[in-house]
Amino acid sequence: CLIDGSGSTDVKSGTSRSNGLPNSGLGGGIFIGGMDGVVRLRGLTVSDNTANYGGGMYMHGPTTVVLSQISLRQNRAHINGGGISVDVDTGDVRIVREDGDNSGASAASVTATSISSNFASICGGNLYVGKPTNSGSNWNGPNVIDVLRKRGTCPSLTILNMKIDSGEAKEGGGICHATCALHMIASSAVDNRASNGGGVYQRGYMTTMQEGAEISGNVALNNGGGLYLDGVHSYVEGLGTSKVSITKNHAGYSGGGIHIVSSLKEKRDKNDEETFEISKIGQSVTVPGSGDY
Predict the structure, then answer these.
(1) pLDDT at residue 44 greater than cutoff 70
(2) What is the pTM of this model?
(3) What is the DSSP string of 159-175?
């Protein structure tokens, strides 16, 4: 299914997308182009699709995608983004869950939107945000501030009221973030698994957690059960008045809650540390709304 993303597009009526674009490198089930419009997907099941990036869906910014009663599950990516792959390099993307009622249907018959149980061979079992390449990110090296100044903008993905769960990948079982900004607003990454970064693997610049955002119940075989943070200037910040949390995660080796490391090192004084780790082995860190942790 190809959607150019211009104007307002509404796709509904219980359509099932299975092996929709099996030979496509981008978006095995649905491809959404970036024409700065609003795309509304309602009552769809997107499952059992395969692509290099975005086994279930591929989104290209700028665009806003509103999901209502969507089941996006058991899709696979050969590279990144088993469920969804998002490219924000040419414009910001917003993914919004807006289930509401279903034309008078009973509450029991309304299916809540879920992005669940998707798989990526490399990064982002359920969700990947970044360019469709695995050659690295411009947003986690020592020159990231220069890159930001030169561009004049901070390309971002905002996920609003979303639950990202039960995904699996080598890095970032739930979410893999390789761009300037990821904004998690009233959203959660829960019960995901990876070798590193069970919940979120960040090799981008910043992540903000707002309005009760949560990273919990995730497992990393090695490091960073909740969050694996890789970058010279990268950071995570809690914003707003509602508490946000990184809790009840587990790592087999280091950083049950958060593991922080700089694989792209910058020049520093000889007494400066180049590798940072927060949290004890197998434990988690709770991040209060102030962003302190």
Answers:
(1) yes
(2) 0.83
(3) EES-EEES-EEEE-SSE
